[in-house]
Design a protein that fits this description.
Elements (H helix, E strand, L loop, with lengths): L2 H16 L8 H9 L6 H21 L5 E6 L2 H15 L5 E5 L1 H7 L16 H34 L2 H12 L8 E4 L7 H14 L3 E5 L15 E2 L2 H17 L6 E6 L6 E2 L11 H6 L4 E4 L11 E3 L2 E5 L7 E2 L5 H14 L4 E4 L6 H14 L5 E4 L6 H15 L21 H11 L1 H8 L2 E6 L2 H17 L5 H15 L6 H4 L2 H12 L18
């Protein structure tokens, strides 16, 4: 007996209790529809995926080679195709997530049109995208199971019991396309109450992991741009707490909070921290400020001063009313931010860096792990980095340290195509290839993500098609560059009607109307050319 058959039997018993008015109900059709709709609410998804993330975190603690990965997506279809591809090529979705990028929501999903990553887009667009992603992932399940059900019917008609048993086992052990989403809530879109309300909507849509950063909400900047302004720790802790309350209220007690610090690139603060005694959290935050010692006689109108160790210190205030941190304090502030966040409700860290450098990341994480040994990092393998140039320069520096001759290379010009075939370029590419593995082994990186890769791939593939189609190649550009590749590489979208749900709809019509069903998949359907 299988779980699939058990469900059929249960519906059959229900049908018998309801008598002749249920004669049109086929118990196996009900079992199929239930299997195709495993997750009925976003909260079910949030709990299911939170359990996955917690299991993965535990496994990583025992073996750092078991890190997790994701790609940022901006539309449900893109997320769906990513997971279909993963299942096709890698046979399992294990350790593979989705990342919901605030950058791409701003750039691609706002009713205002393309916006910079400054929290100007509608906050409701974030939970809306989470819901959309899971709608498409659930549809991928329904489609794939529908194909299995068709195979099962064909095997039964053919009288092939071995095939029937095998297909039923595939149905019973079916692996869903639904995976965890790490969702970007930016700096919380307002005060802690606003953060809590938005977090609830995100969790209700299915998010099991919410990433929040320590920037000022109304001055928020992309992590790889200038002008970032951080908040004192107590302000950030209030928002971490608000997110935890949202998880607890909705019953997802093991929801995951990712605390991001932008302090490495943030040289400004909007507020001075409240401090009650030397060495407390507020005093530590203020100790990084760029100050000048003054006497009471030097106080000017409206000056703000800090008293420390019996001295009057005047923080350097800009015309924008922001205060400046001392240069060179970024890494120390990141370490303090990270330890403080983990001590106050965060589960994972995110340190935004200016370059992909394992030693730099490890240097900060080693300091954090002296205090919290199992601290783990979510790391942004950002497209804002020039990966080729960064790693060629790292390879160059390695050659210098090893005493090798680098006279054939100009370190400042290593991006040049002239270096593409060189030994240095190969070493650099090998370092890029192993970056995630090395970062997870040496720097505590539990999760590697690329924030906005599908933004770039959409632009690149569209450029390829437009260049040929509107040029001399004409229709061959599409046929050779898209459709022929879809057919030969087994890309399911070549049968786009099927991907959009046409065959599922035909089967439902047959469930509902029997032989009277008017179906779209008959002999005149041109998708039959791809059988």
């Amino acid at each position: 007996m299988t779980a699939y058959q058990d469900d059929i039997d249960a519906v059959q018993a229900l049908k018998e209790r309801n008598g002749s008015s249920w004669d049109a109900i086929n118990p196996e059709h009900v079992a199929r529809m239930r299997a195709q709709n495993r997750f009925r609410t976003g909260l079910e998804i949030a709990q299911y995926t939170a359990d996955i993330m917690r299991r993965d975190m535990t496994e990583y603690d025992a073996d750092s080679s078991l890190y997790t990965q994701s790609l940022g997506v901006w539309h449900g279809f893109i997320g769906q195709q990513k997971l279909i591809s993963i299942k096709k090529h890698l046979k399992t979705t294990n350790k593979r997530y989705l990342y919901l990028s605030g950058w791409m929501v701003a750039a691609l999903r706002s009713e205002f049109g393309p916006l910079p990553d400054q929290s100007m887009h509608e906050k409701t667009s974030v939970p809306a995208l989470i819901e959309e992603l899971y709608t498409f992932l659930r549809q991928a399940d329904a489609r794939e199971l529908d194909l299995l059900f068709t195979e099962l019917d064909d095997a039964r008609v053919a009288g092939d019991e071995t095939a029937v048993e095998f297909i039923q086992s595939q149905i019973d052990n079916y692996e869903t396309h639904v995976v965890p989403i790490i969702a970007d809530i930016d700096a919380g879109f307002g005060n802690p109450e606003a953060t809590y309300l938005l977090a609830k909507k995100m969790i209700e849509a299915g998010a099991c992991a919410i990433q929040i950063e320590n920037q000022v909400s109304d001055e928020k900047q992309c992590g790889h741009q200038d002008g970032k302004v951080t908040v004192p720790h107590e302000d950030f802790i209030a928002k971490l707490t608000a997110v935890r309350y949202a998880f607890l209220e909705l019953g997802v007690d093991n929801g995951v909070i990712v605390a991001r610090t932008d302090s490495l690139g943030a040289g400004l603060t909007q507020k001075l921290a409240v401090t009650h005694e030397p060495g407390d959290l507020g005093d530590q935050y203020n100790s990084f400020l760029d100050v000048e010692e003054i006497s009471e006689d030097e106080l000017g109108n409206g000056d703000v001063v800090i008293k420390r160790d019996g001295k009057l210190l005047r923080p350097k205030r800009l015309a924008s009313n922001l205060y400046r941190f001392r240069a060179g304090t970024g890494e120390a502030r990141c370490v303090l931010d990270s330890i403080t966040s983990l001590r106050n409700g965060a589960d994972l860290l995110w340190i935004e860096t200016e370059k992909p450098h394992v030693a730099q990341i490890a240097g900060m994480m080693n300091e954090v792990r002296k205090v919290i040994p199992n601290a783990k990092l979510v790391y942004n393998n950002s497209p804002s980095f020039n990966w080729t140039l960064n790693f060629r320069q790292q390879a160059y520096d390695r050659f210098v340290a090893e005493g090798r001759d680098v006279s054939a290379y100009d370190r400042a010009e290593l991006m040049s195509v002239d270096y593409d075939g060189t030994e240095l370029a190969q070493v650099a590419d090998d370092m890029i290839r192993s970056f995630q593995r090395d970062g997870s082994a040496q720097a505590g990186i539990f999760h590697h993500l690329i924030t906005l890769p599908t933004y770039h791939t959409a632009a690149l593939s569209t450029d390829d098609l437009a260049k040929g189609y509107f040029g001399d190649e004409g229709m061959l550009a599409y046929v050779q560059g898209v459709q022929r590749r879809e057919i030969r590489e087994g890309i399911a979208t070549v049968k786009h009607q099927n991907m959009a749900g046409s065959d599922i709809g035909d089967n439902h019509k047959e469930y509902f109307a029997g032989d009277a069903a008017l179906k779209a998949g008959g002999k005149d359907n041109t998708m039959n050319q791809f059988s």
